[in-house]
Specification:
- This protein is an alpha/beta fold.
- Mean pLDDT is 87; it is low at 1-14 and 19-50.
- It has a single domain, classed as NAD(P)-binding Rossmann-like Domain (Rossmann fold, 3-Layer(aba) Sandwich), CATH 3.40.50.
- The protein has helices at residues 44-50, 69-80, 104-116, 131-144, 168-200, 221-241, 266-280, 291-301; strands at 28-29, 42-43, 60-64, 84-89, 121-125, 150-153, 203-208, 246-253, 312-315.
- Helices cover 39% and strands 13% of the residues.
- The structure holds nicotinamide-adenine-dinucleotide (NAD).
- Residues 17-18, 21, 64-65, 67-71, 89-90, 101-102, 127-129, 154-158, 181, 185, 208, 210, 253, 255-256, 258-260 line the site of nicotinamide-adenine-dinucleotide (NAD).
Length: 325
Amino acid sequence: MKNKKSGNSFTRRGVVLGGTAAIAGATSVFAQSKSVKAQEPISIAQNQSQSRNNILEGKVALVTGAARGIGRAIAVSLANAGADIAAVDILQDIQGHSVPMATTEDMTQTKQLVEQAGKRFLSLKADIRDLAALKNAVAQTNQQLGAIDILIANAGINSNVGFTTTDETAWKNHWDIVTDVNVIGTANTLRAVTPSMVERKTGNIVIVSSTFGRQGNGTNPAYVASKWSVIGLTKAAAIELSEFGITVNAIAPTAVRTGLGGSQTEQQRAESNEWLQANYHQLPVGLLEPEDIAGTVVFLASPAAKYITGTTIDIAAGANARYTA
Ligand SMILES: NC(=O)c1ccc[n+]([C@@H]2O[C@H](COP(=O)([O-])OP(=O)(O)OC[C@H]3O[C@@H](n4cnc5c(N)ncnc54)[C@H](O)[C@@H]3O)[C@@H](O)[C@H]2O)c1
């Protein structure tokens, strides 16, 4: 592995995507930097209330995977910008996938944070692999909050299963689960929500990809393929839905401290931080926090981005400077 200063051919073997589950109201951010002294922890709740505005007042947003992690941070930021939130999450573990999914307690914490922002909150238990369940979630949202203006297709899973590291049965099982959730589940989400947007000729959609949707990685080919795939899906949907005034964009975050990769020890997280900062990011930071991702989503959902569609925004602390045009 080469240091970022000495060359640009490296893999992200050192990075474990996700980390421990972050609880937005209770965690603190420690900016990591070699060149800057360790900073004081910043309360995320304080951060979010400081960034409160009404750019999305009166809007209804549906966010998948909203019970924890990046989805929760997005839901809370959209609420702080004025939107009511329909939060979709599976809220039970996925058979054959070793990483635990969010719980009803996680969802309750998201609810509390959204309600603290003064917005309405609807909790919807649905598996994005199940189109009928998603359609039902959309119907409930229409009934209880109103028509959906903003869709954030965020729910996704990852596990590190390589071409060479497993047997055929485990490989097939893993490939199917990751593809079903990340690709088919994301397409289902658009399928369920876009008809009413088309009818109303308005809507803003953001799909959550990854830096692994922009480059390769040696440990998780199914995840990499799925995250490239949703960027293709973003472009196809942007073209098809443009005539209805609907924007469709993607974001490609770098590694963020969430439950995506299962639990991590403090030492593993410290190693990820160190590796990211030394070898991957250009800005002086290690693992990002979920809240670091949410502001870009609010922007893409807002009138400030009304003529942006079919694009992907890298939120990668400058790692992207080495791999995207
Ligand atoms: N954490 C990272 O390092 C990172 C980096 C880039 C992109 N992402 C992407 O961000 C998105 C959010 O991940 P996260 O990091 O917050 O992880 P996370 O595991 O903390 O959150 C994912 C959420 O999605 C839910 N979910 C999973 N499968 C579902 C399904 N089939 N139906 C409904 N809900 C489902 C989970 O219960 C959980 O609440 C994912 O698409 C992920 O690929 C994460």
